[in-house]
Amino acid sequence: MIKKCLFPAAGYGTRFLPATKAMPKEMLPVVNKPLIQYGVEEALDAGLSEISIVTGRGKRALEDHFDISYELENQIKGTDKEKYLVGIRRLLDQCSFSYTRQTEMKGLGHAILTGRSLIGDEPFAVVLADDLCVNLEGDGVLTQMVKLYNQYRCTIVAIQEVDPQETNKYGVIAGDLIGDDLYRVRNMVEKPAPEDAPSNLAIIGRYILTPDIFDLIKQTEPGKGGEIQITDALMKQAQNGCVIAYKFKGKRFDCGGAEGYIEATNFCFENFYKTGKAY
Q1: For the whole model, what pTM was predicted?
Q2: Is 115 left (phi over 0), alpha (psi -120 to 50) or beta?
């Protein structure tokens, strides 16, 4: 059983400056909830109740959000405003939260390695909170992936088709189709130019990783931009036939940039807030 979910949340959020100069990008609100709360809700719905967060300087708001605010709760006690805290209270009641700091920004691979002390020697999920994923017609993306892990017992990455001209924004896979929307990965390239991309199947911010990934990351040399890329470590697993890519069911919004963030806000307002499902 997978119980743990890691949230790398130490990045600067440079695509959303100046809003993220003093506010963690993971705390940007989509309607009335911060991005990271959507991610934790998705994790809990998938049965992952042990939440580990890799933070950095200026990220104390994340810890404060997943804590009780006695003064606030006392102020609104007995009023109709209490309903706004139902969702966050559920998370505080059903999840445990642990934190560690990434002191240097050396890429996603390094951020995941920083969380090793929180995860230990067991499989775990990774969620990038600025990728907001929703599925109105069934299981959430992490729930879908946990079910696949229970069947295949190997690393799983979530993928979606992207515009071939935008492959330079993603890790891109090539693989052999082994089932409905399932590929056994045989190649994986970090942010390839369109003419060099092995496909237009891009990895998005949902992973299930087996614990051997930590040692593989440690053995990985810095890649593009001097960063330790998770795709390089995953490629080592893929060479042993141990990585599956899954074209998930649902919608994904790239909330690290203004356009995707606005789309996500409009979508959540129409489907959650106006329907009374936002709390």
Answers
A1: 0.94
A2: alpha
Q: What is the rounded CA–CA span in Å between residue 66 and residue 47?
A: 18
Specify the CATH architecture of the domain 4-273.
Answer: Alpha-Beta Complex (3.90)
Number of Cβ within a 10 Å radius of residue 33: 19
**Residue 105: which of 257, 235, 225, 254 has the closest Cα?**
225
Residue 138: Cβ within 10 Å count: 9
CA 265, 269, 272 angle in degrees (round to 5)? 120
Separation of alpha carbons 259 and 254, rounded Å? 8
| CA 249, 250, 254, 255 torsion-angle sign | negative
For residue 23 the two structure tokens come to 């506010």
Question: What residues are paired with 98 via a beta bridge?
Answer: 52
Rounded CA-CA distance 213/204 in Å is 18
- The DSSP symbol for 103 reads S
Residues 23, 67: Cα–Cα separation, whole Å: 17
**Hey, how many other C-beta atoms are within 10 angstroms of the C-beta on 202?**
23
| pLDDT averages per 10-residue partition of the chain, 279 residues | 95 89 93 96 97 94 94 90 91 97 90 96 96 94 96 95 92 90 92 91 96 94 82 90 93 94 95 75
Q: Which of 118, 239, 114, 89 is nearest to 175 (CA)?
A: 239
Whether 210 contacts 123, CB under 8 Å: yes
